[in-house]
Model the fold of this input.
Amino acid sequence: MIMYQQDGPIGNMPIVFSPEIRGALSALLHCPYDQITPRMVHPILDEQINSLNITPLSKAKLRSIRDYTVLLRSDSDHLDRIRGQMTCPICIQVSHTPIISSCCGSVFDKVCIDNVLDSQTPDAGGHRYIIKCPLCRKLTAIKEWQSPTCIVGVTEILYS
Done:
């Protein structure tokens, strides 16, 4: 996957913008939508967003878009810090399919956790419901671990 450049069009980002969002961005920045770049978006202030005559959900989306573009800043270490948080401590790779432990909040790759589960002794019924966290060593129910879909887009960026 390519890294989205600060000066490339925002339309190339892996986000689908509604017509209301595209119009709001154009109005805020006094610029046609197809000429808007991430560098232009991240300085937008909350007061500017609040002044728009759009739905509260669209305002929240605009804030999220603004915050997302901060990740693309080439002069920041945000991406490196996120990459560090998303690195699986088992395989030492950025997780393709992240799963978050319920015991310590660590991020693992689901494939690695499946391998850990497969290596554990099953219960009397042949099931593996309990996992010993590879990091903090606590026993937890695997069904309590989360695989949030909201961070899948982030992992795509981290692979660039």
About this structure: The mean pLDDT is 77. The helical segments are 19-29, 38-41, 46-50, 56-70, 78-85, 110-119, 152-158. The CA atoms of residues 123 and 129 lie 8 Å apart. The chain has seven helices and four strands.
